[in-house]
Amino acid sequence: MNRIEQHPFLEVPQRRGLVFYYNQRAVPALEGDTIAAALTANGIRAFRETRKRKESRGMFCGIGQCGDCMMVVNGKPNVRTCVTLVEDGMRVETQIGLGGDSHETV
Ligand code: FES
């Protein structure tokens, strides 16, 4: 994982580890991570794909405002992963377009 584990001034608290699934692949995380933080710590930066142009999108604002980090979580599309905490055994999948709406144009 790609994380800050030591800091010269701040204490880095120990947190319980957990495992979730990204596109059927087991991925380690720490309790208290958002989904986006856990994916980023594991080198995964592309969270969704635009329907028309197949362009990758990932974390942009990081505060739940832009929607670029939306993924399918436990079968539910359009979950903003930057403000959703990861859970043990959670299933997270790359979202294509707007997540199943046949009238989508993005
Ligand atoms: S990165 Fe903007 S809503 Fe998540």
User: What CATH architecture do you see?
Assistant: Roll
Morphology call? globular
Tally of individual domains: 1
Sheet bearing the most strands, described?
Answer: 5 strands, mixed
Tags for this model:
106 residues; mainly beta; Ubiquitin-like (UB roll); five-stranded mixed sheet; 7% helix; globular; binds FE2/S2 (inorganic) cluster
What does it look like?
There is one protein chain. This protein is mostly beta strands and 106 residues long. It has a single domain, classed as 2Fe-2S iron-sulphur cluster binding domain, sarcosine oxidase, alpha subunit, N-terminal domain (Ubiquitin-like (UB roll), Roll). The protein is 7% helix and 28% strand. The protein contains one helix and eight strands. The strands form two sheets. A five-stranded mixed sheet has the order 2-1-7-5-6, covered by helices on one side. The protein has a three-stranded mixed sheet with strand order 4-3-8, with no helix packed on it. The protein is globular. The termini are far apart. FE2/S2 (inorganic) cluster binds next to loops.
Please render the helix and strand layout as text.
Elements: E1 17-22, E2 25-30, H1 35-41, E3 48-49, E4 56-57, E5 70-73, E6 76-80, E7 91-93, E8 95-96
Parallel strand pairs: 1-7, 3-8
Antiparallel strand pairs: 1-2, 3-4, 5-6, 5-7
